[in-house]
Each structure stands twice: as structure tokens, then as C-alpha cells.
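User: Please fill in residues for this 109-position structure.
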């Protein structure tokens, strides 16, 4: 293979000479871009589905760790601790609201 053919393939020379892409090339670029964009949106949706939802119980456990850490630190102000305790109270209220009252029939049978 000659170096001139390697450096300047005939396909590229034709594109350079034309200066403008053909309608088929433009259409293909638009299709590729659209399909690529659609793939990106699908990937985002998959990531949202893969992301696990945290339960109130796990949130309360994590919050308890933060409260214990805040209590151990002398440098943190008590305002932070009070804010975390308010959040803990709110999570407890959410937990209570999410519970469903059932009948005793399920226990008997």
C-alpha cells in the first residue's frame, strides 16, 4: 500500500471534493443522533429503576447514627442535635401514618 493511499484514502478525497454531505449521510446522522439520544433517556430511566428506595426504618437507623455522632462531638452546636431529633420525630410520624390497621380475623384464621 502506498503511503499516499494510506494518508489520503479515496473515500475521504471524494468527501473533501464534494464539500457537503449527501442527503443520505445527513439523514443517517440525524437518525443516529436521535437513536443515541433515545438510548441516553432509556439509560436514565433504568438508573432510576435500579436505584433502591429507602425505607423509613433504614432512614431512622441512619439518623440515629448521626444523632449519636453529634452527641459525641463537642465542636458541634446543640442546634444541630435538635434539628436531627426533630427529623427523627418526623420520620416516626411518617412511620405511624404508613401503618395500616387490620382486623383480628387475619390472626384467627
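Assistant: Residues filled in for all 109 positions:
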Amino acid at each position: 500500500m502506498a503511503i499516499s493511499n494510506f494518508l489520503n484514502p479515496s473515500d475521504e478525497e471524494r468527501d473533501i471534493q464534494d464539500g457537503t454531505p449527501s442527503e443520505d449521510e445527513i439523514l443517517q446522522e440525524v437518525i443516529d443522533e436521535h437513536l443515541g439520544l433515545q438510548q441516553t433517556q432509556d439509560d436514565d430511566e433504568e438508573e432510576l429503576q435500579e436505584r433502591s428506595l429507602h425505607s423509613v426504618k433504614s432512614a431512622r437507623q441512619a439518623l440515629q447514627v448521626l444523632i449519636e455522632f453529634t452527641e459525641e462531638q463537642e465542636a458541634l452546636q446543640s442546634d444541630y442535635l435538635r434539628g436531627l431529633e426533630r427529623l427523627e420525630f418526623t420520620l416516626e410520624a411518617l412511620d405511624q401514618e404508613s401503618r395500616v390497621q387490620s382486623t383480628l380475623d387475619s390472626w384467627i384464621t
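For context: The helical segments are 3-7, 10-18, 23-50, 56-72, 78-98, 105-108.
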